[in-house]
Every structure is written in C-alpha cells, then in structure tokens.
Amino acid sequence: MDKVILASSNPHKLLEIKAILKDFGYALYTAEEMGFTGEIIEDGTTFEENSYIKAKTVQEALGEITIADDSGLMVDVLDGDPGVFSARYASEDADYAMNNLKLLSSLEGTPFLERKARFVSVITMLFKSGEKIVCRGEMEGFIALQEAGENGFGYDPLFYLPVHKKTFAELDTEEKNRISHRAKALEALKEALSQRK
Q: What residue spans define the domains of the chain?
C-alpha cells in the first residue's frame, strides 16, 4: 500500500480526506506523523498556487507521494475575499471566531441575497515521478446573518445552503462529506487517479 503524506496537520482535513479516500488503496499520514518539521510558506495568490507549494515543500522533505488541500471562502460582494487569506482574515494569529466576526462585520448592512459566496478547495497530488494532479471543487451558498450549528469549523456556521435550509455546520458529517467543496475536489481526484492506471 503506497504512503500518501497529507501536507497539513489540520485534523478536520485529515478526517475528511481519509473518509473519502479510505477505499482507494492509499495509506494516509500527516506530514507531522512522518516527521516533517519544516516551514510551509504559503505566499501564492491563488488556491492552486498555495496547494502546490504545500505539496511540493513536504515532498522535497520526505520524498513520498504528497497530497495538499488549499481551501477557503470567496464572497462575491467582497471581491472574492477572504480568499487565500481565509485562515488569517482577521489577523495572522486569528482563530475561527475572530475570522467569523470580521466577516460578519465586513458584511454588516448587506442584504442576505447579496451575500453570495462559495467555498473552494484545490487538491494537489504530487507523485515521485514529478507527475502532478490538480483538482478544484466549489460549493455555492450565502453568508448567513448569524452563526448556526456546531458540526464544523472555520466559516461553516455562517455558510448557508438554501437547498438544505441549513448552514454547513448544521449538516451531519456524512452529508457534509458528500456535498462539500473538498468532497467534489476529491471526487475529481479519484476520477483522475482511476484514469491514470
């Protein structure tokens, strides 16, 4: 079974990716579990660039197949912000609560129907041969007027899905894994991997 190293220590991402790829024949480990102690400098201007930077940095250090996800939230009325700065929207050491507060503040007075947004996930998988697979997934929704739900992290409690009449944080894990931006990117990755064999 080939090792795949996830260029992230985010336990939520690990669980989501493991849940979706569990039957694909890869043993997934975090970079931390494999002894990676380097620094990843995410200085790209797109999700694609940052996803590649993460995967490449870990691969150069560990020499294994690597997989990296760069994801975030884009809000139309904010010209695509927070975008690649989603994790540090409020400040460099911002936590989820601070970022959510800043987002609500940035949208203060904006009517609900003008709060259109999308979650974006870009997955990059790098092989030892230098081969690269890049897949993007998106999920459309709106930014709610207040937080709701506890099954999630980041902007999940604010990301409202009209079809479900719930925020992303109000959905159960199984449903989230089925419809999420990351699930869509991983489904595209599975398809690419199956065509590769």
A: 2-196
Residue with tokens 């999630």: 152
| Cβ atoms of residues 119 and 70 within 8 Å | no
pTM listed for this prediction: 0.89
Answer whether 126's CB lies under 8 Å from 55's CB: yes
In terms of Cα–Cα distance, which of 132, 157, 129, 153 is closest to 143?
157
Which residue ranges in the chain fall short of pLDDT 50?
none
Active site residues: 70
φ/ψ of residue 48, rounded to 5: -60, -45
Q: Other CB atoms closer than 10 Å to residue 186's CB: what's the count?
A: 24
pLDDT at site 197: 60
Residue 115: predicted pLDDT? 98
Name residue, tokens 């260029």: 7
Q: What is the CATH number of domain 2-196?
A: 3.90.950.10
75-116 pLDDT, tens digit each:
999 999 999 999 999 999 999 999 999 999 999 999 999 999
Sheet of 132-143: strand order equals 26-30, 2-6, 65-75, 116-126, 132-143, 159-161, 166-167
Count of residues for the chain? 197
